[in-house]
Amino acid sequence: MKAVIRNFILSLGVDDVGFASVDDYQSPRTPLIELLFPGARSMIVMAFRELSACESPSPQLAMNARLDLMEFTRSACYRVARYVETRLGSPAVTIPVSYPMDFATPKKIGVGEVSLRHAAVSAGLGAFGLHNLVVHPEFGTRVIFTAVLTKLELASDPAAEKNPCTRCGLCVQACPAGALNDEGKTDMLKCLGNSQPYGMRANIGFWCRFSDAPPEERKAMLQSPEYLSLYHAGFIGYQYFCFRCLAACPIGRRGRQESPGPM
């Protein structure tokens, strides 16, 4: 059955797929899968290679490449879950790349319902790198993951034979926020403050200053580049301005000599 599912997923244009039993999924900060989806037995984890445009010097084009990939991942994840339910007869639950997220529970802010990094490792799709992201054997850090939970009994794929990360330290050096300075830990406030400069914290800060500003300054604030950037980020939804750790990673870097795959 795994071969049938794998072939269907790859036919959608997904770059790689792995399988993991929920018993092999180990994540220290997320809920037990049983609490999220009672009766779930397996995880189907999909890997999507980032476009080279994510390394563009233009923040707008780099962000657009991530937006394109986000759209594709949601579509592919839905189609896989629908296939599992309609063709294989098992209930399925999709796990998104990031949002939606629980902001009502303080301890869960910034923590997804399922850690796709740990799911990917459990499914044999890579190992943790020095930057605390998953390094795929072929794609390196240039990859994001989604997953589908199912009640089908699917055996875990073998773990990655070796960790692709060479611990060269280029990702740590490239981080402009210093979010990776403490080994084994990512300072999320530093990371998000730099990668999402017009995210929630910036939005709250702007409106706090706006409420305290005299009337004559408010009009100018609403015409400022800062507000226009916040507005822009608000209707886009996902906004990432930093891909430095991704771009610095030498594993999986596309070279000019790389021959194109099948069209």
Quick synopsis:
The chain has 263 residues and is of the alpha+beta class. The protein contains 10 helices and 6 strands, in the order αβαβαβαβββαααααα.
Describe this structure in words.
This protein is α+β, with helices and mostly antiparallel strands and 263 residues long. It has 2 domains: 2-150, NADH Oxidase (3-Layer(aba) Sandwich); 170-248, no CATH class. It is built from 10 helices and 6 strands. The protein has helices spanning 2-11, 33-36, 59-86, 116-122, 170-174, 188-195, 200-212, 215-222, 225-236, 244-248; strands at residues 16-21, 42-49, 92-95, 127-128, 134-135, 143-150. The strands form 2 sheets. A 4-stranded antiparallel β-sheet has the order 1-2-6-3, sandwiched between helices. The longest helix has 28 residues, at 59-86. The protein is globular and about 65 Å long. The model is unreliable at 256-263 (pLDDT under 50).
What is the level-2 CATH architecture name of the largest domain? 3-Layer(aba) Sandwich
Q: What spatial form do the alpha-carbon principal axes imply?
A: globular
Major β-sheet profile: 4 strands, antiparallel
Q: Give unreliable regions as ranges.
A: 256-263
Strand content: 5-15%
The overall pLDDT average reads 89
Count, helices:
10
- As a whole number of angstroms, the C-alpha radius of gyration is 20 Å
Structural class: alpha+beta
Question: Into how many domains do the coordinates divide?
Answer: 2
Task: List how many beta strands DSSP finds.
Answer: 6
Report helical residue fraction: 25-40%
In the CATH scheme, the class of the largest domain would be: Alpha Beta
Query: Strand sequence of the main sheet, in spatial order?
Result: 1-2-6-3
The CATH topology label of the largest domain is NADH Oxidase
Order of secondary-structure elements: HEHEHEHEEEHHHHHH
